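Sorry to interrupt, but I need a hand with the structure work. Could you write out one complete protein record for me, on any chain you like? Could you add the entry underneath, on a fresh line?
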Amino acid sequence: MPEWTPQQQQAIEAQGSNLLVAASAGSGKTAVLVQRILHIIIDQKVDIDRLLVVTFTQAAAAEMRERISTALMETIEKDGNDPHLRKQLLLLNHAQISTLHSFCNQIVRSYFHLIELDPRYRIADQTEAGLIKMEVMEELMEAQYEQNDPDFIELVEIFSTSRDDSPLRDLVLQIYDFIQSQPDPLNWLQEKTAMFMADKAQFNESSWGVELKMILEQRLMAMEQLLELAQAKCHMPGGSQRQLETLNLDLQQMQDLRTAYFQHDLSEFYTFIKDFALSRLKSAEKDADQGLVTQVKELRQEARDILKSVTDELLPRHPEELIDELKQIHKVMLSLYRIVERFTELYQQHMMEKSLLDFNDLEHCALSILRFPEAADYYRRRFEYIFVDEYQDSNPVQETLLNQIKRQDNMFMVGDVKQSIYRFRLSDPSLFIEKYHHFQVEEESIDRRINLDRNFRCSQPIIDAVNCIFEHVMSAQLGEVDYDEEVKLVHGTLEKPLNPGDVELLLIDRDAQADHDEEDVLEEADQIEIEARLVAQRIKDLLTKQVWDTKLNDYRPVTYRDIVILMRSTTRWVGVFQEVFLAENIPCYADVNNGYFDTVEVGIFLDLLRLIDNKRQDIPLVGVMRSPIFGFSMEDLITIRAESPEVPFYDAVMKYSDSNDGQLGQRLLAMIDQLDRWKKEARLLPLDTFLWQVLLETGFYHYVGAMPGGIQRQANLRILHDRARQFQKTSFKGLFQFLRYIEQIQASSGDMDMAKILGENDNLVRMMSIHKSKGLEFPIVIVAGMGRLFNLRDLDNPLLLHKDLGLGPRFVNLQLRASMDTIARNIVKQRIRSENLSEEMRILYVACTRPKNKLLLVGSVKQIESAMKRWTRPMTHHQLAKARCFLDWVVPVILRHPQGSPLHDRMTTTWEEPMIQDTCCWQVKILSRFSLGEKLMHKRQRAEITRELWAGKQVIPLADEQEEIFSILNWNYPFKESETLPSKLFVTQIRENYKADRQQLAIQVPEVVSQPQFVDPVPRLNAQQRGTAMHKVMQHLSLTNMDGALDSLSSLLEILVDREILTALEAESVDLEAVQVFVNSPLGQRIKSASRVYREAPFNLICPANEVISGENISGENLLVQGVIDLYFEENDGLILVDYKSDRITEYNLEKRVEHYQNQVYWYRRALEQIHGKPVREMYLYFFDNRELIKL
């Protein structure tokens, strides 16, 4: 039983209230959720099928189910056979532990009749739904063009380009997808469209007016803060009194401006601010500190820029004119609403005809069902408790759905708004934030909040660093939550830091100037390659360190699998990192969702499928002809094109094949016939069967398997085959539709996952996006690309969408062919930008809370002097909101830390701001690309010198490397004789004088048999096979019970044949008289009376190689000697050894054969004495041929 913290214990046992558990990173929220479920099951005796547990992913649901099952079985094992607990194990498979979509599916399956839905419906995946949307859009647009509605034509002119109307089509699809997160999508869109008809008073009361007032207040506050900071500079020693006078006047003007803002309406405020201007800054005294004077000027200029942004971005024209523009564009927005409405009707109609639902339909159908009292009441009665995991990632429709079935006090929601990073999936963190502020920490509250702040993942230095950064940059305005004492991380783990345990910040100065003697090896390298080289260098350094392992409760060496590289986005970056790591011999794997369609094997095979579908596609045709599938050379293609230079290439191929009977013409005809045959088969066969047949017929599957990375390439082709099998289950059929299906995948999600061929225990460095790392933990985390600019391109879309503020279009004057941003667009744009930056900050938080032992932040910066000026500015909310990358948040904090001295050294101006007093430790390094390129330069120089030396050229190598180069080239392996040394020998290979013949130790090539034995008309055994048969008989002979009579021995042979130990042919070859002589001999009688007898006893003996093989340089080597002893037995305090021989013996060769086998018996004796620790008193050879027993 784990030791729960007081907060965890409260979250597990609290009753009689709705609970919101705000669980920080690494606080064990999943463990707490599972334990609360167990508490309810075990202590409150509630059946598990009366609980609804909603998770974010299917993997999370499966993990939770597994945890509960394991815990239940452990409890049953510990507390005895409790019938209630055993019942819960049976109910577990039926318990509603699933994603919300799975729960919605269960609702719809049960109550389909309430909404008149076909019960045979099927869930369409994203790609199939996308194809249907394309069909519906095509049908809709054609119908609209036929009607020639002037409003629609105006809509096309406003939102389309001169080339086509695809931007309008994309916009309709974008709006449709966006509104699906609302409980009543079309009603929401209609309400937001009606906002454009608001008059002045209605505008002020609308969400636009409220948001505008908040933005204006923030801008005015930011101006005032900057002027006050400038005023404080003037009060410093050396500050200018003249500038101070101007600033005092500025602040008085700001008071007047704020009064105008609070006491007058928007029109009057616009009139006031339009004529408002700060007075001219007086010149400073000659003896004033010029650094302070400059800083005052910069702060005041920044305040003026804010003022200018108000008039340029928020109120560029008179408010009445801006509101009038909204009214003028209302007709366009209404037309857009009708198009979306009509698209929704057609799409749902098509889906119903095909008995399909997509995931959004599931949610809305379930919500429609739950609006029927009987359905809602059923689920309200059924579920005693409702659990929601990752609550910060919910959206309004999911919230509404759960509200339909909850009771007054049975909700348990767990999450962390600081880790809400899925706004692009339309999750709404404001749902969590609203409850966070509404729920109370008091135990008696019906809506109660419990904070889990103790982190059980990260070591103390990492927690200190994370707290230091985010308490200075994360706020309700930026991050959407105040990083205060309630949410700060508290150390609670046994994890220990790497030694040293500091968190590292590695900055690369991309614009560093070279010294006169430095070569810029990385001059052509871009930002990504430079960072990749630095990361590779740090990984090699880390491999020399020790990392704490909680399982071992000790330090162990760092391995590649301990290290993960996180990136904001893996696009472009992963490929470069993989190339650099490959060059540096660092094994790596990228867990990414892109690159699949860029692989050679997938590209070629898709081109072949396109060609089968339609041969008149020149680019796929040329690609497939040049590929291994058909194997045409470049010269072949030139020959074909030379005969018909003006026609499409397919026509050129047909013309050449018709007019030329040569080898090339015959190959072209064969290719065309093959394509025609495949096209016919594609119509008849199931698509997945057809694809697999083509892969095997062409040999392409096996060909790519023989290429470098063949396992991965074959896995990628199998993924395509799996996609074809999935496609078979959709409402679309045929090769053409499958190719459209693949194109839709590329258009919607951009790519497919690469096949996963590696396991979690493979020893390599992993690379993944920060989003994929959420919920995971790693010993060492390197966050790369910290200087990569945020992607804010969504703000340039022709129409902005926001859940609260609605639509933000541009105002387009078709007569003047001019467009300008509406006030609605400017307001929505500011809000979306703020929310996007908040999400970026939460993404950074997720990345920084993944490591257990070590955190490294890596980023490159251009024009570091300019960046330093930006980072030294006061860390106001306005300044932090101007961030363009992660470094703009991290560096200003470290710059104000005592351990940020490398940053202090790069400052060009005086800076009097107080240091942050914090216990966190930082290692800060600023590197140039020259220091990173130095190692690469030496490697290139050494390679060049080595090439020239091999070519026989006289070169003068670097003085400090000359000796090393020649020692490498002239090096001789000091253990040459050990190259032919075997790792093991059989006793039969060791010859006279106990030494093996080195020449006879080479690999023996088996004798080639002229024909198999079963072809031989007269079966017969060779000498070795006859000897084996005799040994088998001696092995199975019962020496204690056998009387030695020939009849008894014959019976033994029959038994061995019946048991298939001997064949009939082997039994015929056995010399029973030789066996009888041995059994009846004095030695045989001694064996009968022996206390212990061992037969066919194998042994392994390790001994020095120079005791077995003669050689000069093998004294330090060992050999494994193996053998099988026929028989030995214990007698008194010693051992008696017997070895059988089936050699042909004459009076002339007996002495030589005995001498020959003495060495073998010696090794048997040595092995027995070493194994048993007893001496071998006697050794015997028994020759079956002459029935003679010889004592050695």
